[in-house]
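Sync notes, pocket subgroup
Present: LS, DG
LS reminded everyone that the earlier model was apo-only. Rerun requested with FE2/S2 (inorganic) cluster included. Inputs:
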Amino acid sequence: MKLSEKPREKNIAPPLWLLAEVTYRCPLNCVFCYNPVDYAKQHNELTTAEWVKVLREGRKMGAAQLGLSGGEPLLRKDLEEIVEEARKLGYYVNLLTSGIGMTEERIKNLKIAGLDHIQLSFQDSTKEMNDFLSSTKTFDLKKKVAGLIKEYDYPMVLNCVLHRLNIDHIEQILNMAEAMGAEFVELANTQFYSWGMLNRDQLLPSEEQLKRAEKITHKFRDRLGNKMKLFFIMPDYYSTRPKKCMNGWGNVFITVQADGMVLPCHVASMLPDINFESVRNKSLDWIWYKSPGFNKFRGDDWMKEPCKSCPEKENDLGGCRCQAFMLTGDPNAADPVCDKSPHHSKISEAVIASQKPSNYERPIVFRTDNDSRKIMQKRDKGQLDITSSRLLERDSKPSKEKSRVGLV
Ligand code: FES
């Protein structure tokens, strides 16, 4: 069936992946974090019982993969309980972690609870850069956690987000991964959303840096083959066709935020004129199949030219709605990554701007609760530039709590 013939709210496949962002608390302050810039609006995480309800509803709908992420999911003391329930329900359970908070006792208990898979993130191959980028002293600890992952017989899956400041260390990063016995390594170039977008000028690599990194990755791939599988994810900014974001809006992934808001992607709460629902008020089933937010960009009725008549629209579905909004102010516009978009110059201009020392040498913004609050206050006072203000939900207000964000 062609997209245009697909009736709305009918023939919608169930979600396959449930992404549970169980907390926005995090000991790290990563400069490329994809959590919403205004995450400090949240102060009321779902309880264990509420997460269990979400898991049951998701499984009943057909979701088979569960991603537990955050923030740092290990900060939830009930993580083992959540994993145990998920495993009993039949999910394949993935933990996406920085490793902070992982002890031998916890990994043992998570194994007993039925955790299937751990993805450990690194910022760099050097202690200095790893600790600078996360604004913490965590490099040695991460190495210990990598050892525990091996010892408890999990596949070693490493993730390193690449950008201007670490991409030239790719050879060392891959050597480190090999020495750790990694079986899968994801080298994901920063995608410019949320905190990454605030730091775009400082983080966007040059084309030469990217080409060199790709070449080195190929060299490792040729030598190691299946022994260490490498995934190199390019930044959109050097493409001329947009990605099929999230494999389609409301198509495969359903994301539940720490406070229960349900989204088709991590950052959709910034899109204007959509009221996303919470699992505290509605069932997951209703939200997926019936809610206006999840139906907003299904099919192609929403498309404008040049997407509407584009022969490639079924491949990329017009690209990313959040990127279209961030860069053009119109969530229905073609993703400006596409060179058929009338706004494609926004991408080429951003690449040029990011290569100027006066831009990339500007201070970097770290993801902290305080900065999240300050950014909301600046927006309210009209002190935020237009693109940055688009990263926030329109009426988000800082949580009143002085303590860490999100405590249950
Ligand atoms: Fe929201 Fe692409 S990140 S649709």
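DG: The first strand starts at residue 17 and ends at 21.
LS: The radius of gyration is 21 Å.
Action: DG to write up.
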